Automatic annotation (TrEMBL), chain A:
It comes from Niabella drilacis (strain DSM 25811 / CCM 8410 / CCUG 62505 / LMG 26954 / E90). It holds the Pfam family NADH_4Fe-4S. NDH-1 shuttles electrons from NADH, via FMN and iron-sulfur (Fe-S) centers, to quinones in the respiratory chain. One of its GO terms (biological process) is cellular respiration. This is NADH-quinone oxidoreductase subunit F. One of its GO terms (molecular function) is NADH dehydrogenase activity. Residues 340-385 form the NADH-ubiquinone oxidoreductase 51kDa subunit iron-sulphur binding domain. InterPro entries: ComplexI_51kDa_subunit, NADH-UbQ_OxRdtase_51kDa_CS, NADH-UbQ_OxRdtase_suF, Nuo51_FMN-bd, Nuo51_FMN-bd_sf, Nuop51_4Fe4S-bd, Nuop51_4Fe4S-bd_sf. Its cofactor is FMN; [4Fe-4S] cluster. NCBIfam families: nuoF_fam, PRK13596.1. Keywords: 4Fe-4S, Flavoprotein, FMN, Iron, Iron-sulfur, Metal-binding, NAD, Quinone, Translocase. Belongs to the complex I 51 kDa subunit family. Its EC number is 7.1.1.-.
TrEMBL record, chain B:
Belongs to the complex I 24 kDa subunit family. It holds the Pfam family 2Fe-2S_thioredx. NCBIfam families: nuoE_fam (TIGR01958). GO terms for molecular function: 2 iron, 2 sulfur cluster binding; active transmembrane transporter activity; inorganic cation transmembrane transporter activity; metal ion binding; monoatomic cation transmembrane transporter activity; NADH dehydrogenase activity. Its cofactor is [2Fe-2S] cluster. GO terms for cellular component: catalytic complex; membrane protein complex; organelle envelope; organelle membrane. This is NADH-quinone oxidoreductase subunit E. Keywords: 2Fe-2S, Iron, Iron-sulfur, Metal-binding, NAD, Translocase. GO terms for biological process: inorganic cation transmembrane transport. SUPFAM superfamilies: Thioredoxin-like (SSF52833). Signal peptide: none annotated.
Length: 454, 170
């Protein structure tokens, strides 16, 4: 089954990175259309589309836009979050590298809807070659009258600037991003006030992910109602999935959120199956912070239904037996992978990226990393597993920003579903240094009536 | 050993700084700090206290405001680094594709550990956390660009290419 493409349809056209080719293929029509509408009508279309934030949180974009405060005489800003740093996620990079004009087009329409005359793209510093691509696209759009003063004689002025970060995962959190944009450390702010009221330089600000803003283009082109017909339930439109790990065809795919996880992993159109004919052990389907699931719970929900690649189905069963769509960073582990070691690398990542502002996160991530390293090296104790559980539960919900939760969830889920593998690293410490635990029962069919341990 | 460099942007670089400042609201020139630190690092190689103080003066902010930012973000070098910095990603998706072996191999080839610089000042090896190239693992960043799908052979070729560049430019 082929999925409808709204974002990447033209990604493989030669020269699509440049204005002339992009324009010839229908580019910038949404700007022409939107600038003839009232800004609120554009917001209304986005609301009707059901578009949900593609950065990970899945918050309805139209609703977020409608929260922006409009005090008299105070400039408002749109900021594009291109700080993509969640392990497993590399979709925004693909969009910006291959279709920079799609993002710029989406930014112009969205800036118009929100009344942002100066819009920023905050891009992670390591993507050091991409600002050149974006700045060229901006210059081309400007030379052709789609940016600058009085765009298409609408009276609307807009400039877009690119700012590079400098290496900090936390700056993907919107208030940390704003702090960073202001030239400060990326310490998240306490909300409220929300950025929509007091954001960059205390001005009303909306921060949206790259993919979210690119999706505004097809929404305006085909209309919000048509867009909402694609997909299923509250998972409307298409979603970019960056697939990696032990699969035959890693890469960025656009799906319409109706295909099953099984089809996505095994079909030649998508991941092409597990590499080297190995068996699937586990998967983190939405970026490193969402719960890892063993193969059986990934492919079928606890109710025995086929799991679908959308917001609702991936979270079916809550954290006990489900996971999350997150950012769409799809990490696949085969039977040879060690869940303890993998979880250790994620714990190390979150310790490294904690801004240090809140004690539960600053101290807790360090403890989790040390305990997991000890377990991985065969020097753990059984009580370490309980201690890990205790620490993660004390981080979750006790921090200013969601990084605390993001650090806690992978550890909690790994223990929840792979506890026997953790125990084996302790009871069979020497053996665990020479081989991996393997597939065990993780791919067994799950009986429908089996009670689920939390 | 350490050559004393005059910490002073050229006229052209100063113009660039002013262009960056102009992107932000008036009086909010501190917002230009991250981009200006990137520029300073590009020009002076790393961020010495002297460099940070210079940037503070340029942006009319306190030196401490620069230090606290420079120490927060991983991309700013607070000590001198080699001409080529290999930053190898070691997070989950790269780990399962063999990043540990790549880190060990580079260390062996250059006879340095992560965080160290070769005696000739050519190479620095660093480990990095997720660089957003998970589908093309294992990988590393070298300067502005990513080197992906790394193998030992590819690492050898990259090292040779760097050495070659240096001898050509000298």
């Amino acid at each position: 089954m082929s999925s409808q493409k709204l974002l990447l349809e033209n990604a493989h056209i030669e020269g699509i990175r440049y204005y002339d080719v992009y324009r010839k293929n229908g580019g910038y029509r949404s700007v022409e259309k939107a600038l003839k509408m009232a800004p609120d009508e554009v917001v209304e279309e986005v609301k009707k589309s059901g578009l949900r934030g593609r950065g990970g949180a899945g918050f309805p974009t139209g609703m977020k836009w409608s929260f922006i405060a409009k005090p008299e005489g105070v400039p408002r800003h749109l900021v594009c979050n291109a700080d993509e740093s969640e392990p497993g996620t590399f979709k925004d990079r693909y969009l910006m590298e291959f279709l920079p004009h799609l993002l710029i087009e989406g930014l112009i329409v969205s800036s118009y809807a929100l009344g942002s005359n100066v819009t920023y793209i905050y891009i992670r510093g390591e993507y050091a070659w991409i600002p050149d691509i974006l700045e060229q696209a901006i210059a081309e759009a400007k030379a052709n009258g789609f940016l600058g003063k009085n765009i298409l004689n609408s009276g609307f002025d807009c400039e877009i600037y690119v700012q590079r970060g400098a290496g900090a995962y936390i700056c993907g959190e919107e208030t940390a991003l704003i702090e960073s944009l202001e030239g400060k450390r990326g310490n998240p702010r306490i909300k409220p006030p929300f950025p929509a009221v007091k954001g960059a330089w205390d001005r009303p600000t909306v921060v949206n992910n790259v993919e979210t803003l690119a999706a505004v283009v097809p929404i305006i082109n085909i209309g919000g109602e048509e867009y909402a017909k694609i997909g299923v339930g509250r998972s409307t439109g298409t979603k970019l999935i960056s697939a990696c790990g032990n699969i035959n065809k890693p890469g960025v795919y656009e799906i319409d959120m109706t295909i099953s996880v099984e089809e996505f992993i095994y079909s030649d159109e998508w991941c092409g199956g597990i590499k080297s004919g190995k068996r699937l052990k586990a998967c983190i389907p939405g970026g490193s912070s969402v719960p890892i699931l063993p193969a059986n719970l990934l492919l079928k929900t606890a109710k025995g239904e086929s799991r679908i690649m959308n917001y609702e189905s991936l979270s079916d069963g809550g954290f006990a037996t489900g996971t999350m769509m997150g950012s769409g960073g799809f990490i696949v582990l085969d039977e040879d992978q060690c869940v303890v070691k993998h979880t250790y690398t994620l714990a190390r990542f979150y310790r490294h990226e904690s801004c240090g502002q809140c004690s539960p996160c600053r101290e807790g991530t360090g403890w989790m990393e040390k305990l997991l390293l000890r377990l991985d090296q065969g020097q753990g104790k059984l009580s370490d597993i309980d201690l890990l559980w205790d620490i993660q539960s004390k981080i979750e919900g006790n921090t200013i920003c969601p990084l605390g939760d993001a650090a806690a969830w992978p550890v909690a889920a790994a223990i929840r579903h792979f506890r026997d593998e953790f125990e084996w690293h302790i009871t069979n410490a020497a053996e665990a240094q020479t081989r991996n635990y393997g597939l065990a029962h993780y791919a067994d069919p799950l009986p429908v009536s089996e009670p689920v341990a939390v | 050993m350490e050559q004393k460099i005059m910490i002073q942007f050229s006229q052209e670089q100063l113009e660039k700084v002013n262009q960056i400042i102009a992107r932000y609201p008036e009086g909010k020139q501190k917002s230009a700090l991250l981009p200006v630190l990137h520029l300073a690092q590009e020009v002076f190689g790393w961020l010495s206290t002297e460099t940070m103080d210079y940037v503070a003066a340029l942006l009319q902010i306190e030196p401490i405001e620069v230090y606290e930012v420079a120490t927060f973000y991983t991309m700013y070098n607070l000590k001198p680094v080699g001409k080529y910095v290999f930053e190898v990603c070691q997070t989950g998706p790269c780990m399962i594709q063999g990043s540990d072996d790549i880190i060990a191999y580079i260390g062996e080839r250059l006879n340095i550990k992560p965080g160290e610089t070769t005696e000739d000042g050519l190479f620095t090896l660093k480990v990095a956390e997720c660089l957003g190239a998970c589908g093309y693992a294992p990988m590393m960043q070298v300067g502005k660009f990513y080197k992906e799908h790394l193998t030992k052979e590819k690492v050898d070729a990259i090292i040779a290419e760097c050495r070659n560049n240096v001898s050509v430019n000298n």
